[in-house]
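Lab meeting notes turned into a lecture example. A postdoc, R.K., suggested we walk through two folding results consecutively so the class can see how the record format repeats. The first protein's sequence and structure tokens come next.
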Amino acid sequence: MSARHLLAVPAAALLAVAGSAAPAAADAPAYAAAVTDFGLGRLGASAGALLALAGLVVAGLVLARPAGRFGARAAAMSRAALAAGLTGTTLGILVASTAAGGLGTGNGLGGAYVAILVGVLCAALAARGLYRARRNG
């Protein structure tokens, strides 16, 4: 899989989610939440984004190091990063599908989009790291 495909998949996923959420934004209430309000939507989106970001760091470490640097741990680290990416993506999708209102209403919709994007990117990099770890033995 080329680098162009790795970058195109998360962008296409984000556009698909944003395109399906546009009709729901038309019916959104016209209030904005305060910055200090931290509801369940923001909590779930933040947790998903941070989990996916941690997986992205681990996947980046596996791919940045020489092939034999981590040895047998490379496959385990790639599996952990893959699980973190998929969990972050799932949390982002869950928050995006249950958010009442559009961006800026305090329901965590922006954070959900970030969690989806980072989670998909993390899963792609972790899958590449897992493939490399299996190939190198």
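The second example is placed directly after the first for contrast:
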Amino acid sequence: MEKKKVIFLFSGIAIVIFFLFIFFYNFFFVLGVKNIDFSIKVGDTIGLNVDTDKLYFGTVPRGGTADRGILVKNEEHSLVKTNIKVQSDIKDWLYVNNNNFFLKKDEKKDINFKVKVPLDAEYGEYDGQIILIFTRF
């Protein structure tokens, strides 16, 4: 009978610790996540797309490059760490000039992205997502 009480007690403690971890992680460590869709078209010509619904790199020939930028600003917290991740089949084509950086309150930083299309890339449109994760430091 005592063994069941001990198991029950440890199970309860483990559940409480798990929920406390989730609470602190979500409310005190991760301050926000911003997803930015991006698109690039591989073709024989050079083309621009200035629409603002996503980060367009336009039409880029094989072996060519294209640059786009965003402005990141910390408007609320005293110190924020920003981490940038890329989710895409072509994430190896995309380079960022600055990653894992800190922003003080009201500080801004220009972030530039460069796409370098390989010489053996297939023609077509490629999409992905840039993910900015803001954490308290």
